[in-house]
Amino acid sequence: MSVATINPHEAAHFGALAADWWDPHGSSAMLHRLNPVRLSYIRAQIDAHWHGDARERQPLTGKRALDVGCGAGLLAEPLARLGAAVTGVDAAPENIAAARSHAAGQGLAISYHAGELAALPPATFDLVTSMEVVEHVADPSAFVAELAARLAPGGLMILSTPNRTALSKLLLVEAAERVGAVPRGTHDWDRFLKPEELTDLLEGAGLEAIDRTGLSPSPARGFKLGGSEALNYLIAARWRG
């Protein structure tokens, strides 16, 4: 029997933000600023993993992608535009309703599901992504195992999450919530994972980390890849062996 990974409190918190998820100046403004940086990393890893051409507009044509903790589709929609057949899963039904509505308005055919990842019909995916989610689940080990169970042979997994450091506690939790950069109650610092802890979870699920990079603030661009991992990091993984 699969272990439940959804934290009901977390699902309710994010579901309450569904109505203005797509407002770049609303409660999800931070995600809107993060998304282009995440996408640049994902695209680079896609090209490296499948030996693609960076000039190709739809490098995921013919591939299946799964975005777990998809919210209202902020990453799922760009993945669809990159050519993938995309499935999005989120714990909050309100987010899935917003995601379906927005995708329809964009003319994108994305398959969205609310609830546990384990409840999805049996299928595997060439690309599995989960951005800023593992720190919100009830059981990170079981969650990573569920992600791995959905990764096809030869597939690529990309995760991002805050690091558990003194700096992240100061800036991501205390300062960001105090000034309203993120809604209060969004982050529980004690649930943040250090890179070596997430790497251990991936290895425990039979995967190997193949790349990792920091995601940090940039005065010029909002956020940038590379440099310090003290606040946030992205990690790419594949099947071991």
From TrEMBL:
UniProt EC number:
2.1.1.222, 2.1.1.64
Catalyses which reaction?
a 3-demethylubiquinol + S-adenosyl-L-methionine = a ubiquinol + S-adenosyl-L-homocysteine + H(+); a 3-(all-trans-polyprenyl)benzene-1,2-diol + S-adenosyl-L-methionine = a 2-methoxy-6-(all-trans-polyprenyl)phenol + S-adenosyl-L-homocysteine + H(+)
A GO BP term, please? Answer: methylation
What the entry lists under SUPFAM superfamilies is as follows: S-adenosyl-L-methionine-dependent methyltransferases
Domain of life of the source? Bacteria
Detail which positions bind S-adenosyl-L-methionine. Answer: R38, G69, D90, M131
First-tier enzyme category under EC: transferase
Instruction: List, in alphabetical order, the Gene Ontology terms for molecular function in this entry.
Output: 2-polyprenyl-6-hydroxyphenol methylase activity; 3-demethylubiquinol 3-O-methyltransferase activity; polyprenyldihydroxybenzoate methyltransferase activity
- Keywords noted in UniProt: Methyltransferase, S-adenosyl-L-methionine, Transferase, Ubiquinone, Ubiquinone biosynthesis
Question: Which pathway does UniProt place it in?
Answer: Cofactor biosynthesis; ubiquinone biosynthesis
Please verify whether the record's keywords include Transferase: yes
Q: Which Pfam families match?
A: Methyltransf_23 (PF13489)
Q: Which PANTHER family match?
A: METHYLTRANSFERASE (PTHR43464), UBIQUINONE BIOSYNTHESIS O-METHYLTRANSFERASE, MITOCHONDRIAL (PTHR43464:SF19)
User: Could you say which protein family the record assigns here?
Assistant: Belongs to the methyltransferase superfamily. UbiG/COQ3 family.
Please explain the role this protein plays, according to its UniProt record.
O-methyltransferase that catalyzes the 2 O-methylation steps in the ubiquinone biosynthetic pathway.
Q: What is this protein called?
A: Ubiquinone biosynthesis O-methyltransferase
User: What is the organism lineage in this UniProt record?
Assistant: Bacteria, Pseudomonadati, Pseudomonadota, Alphaproteobacteria, Sphingomonadales
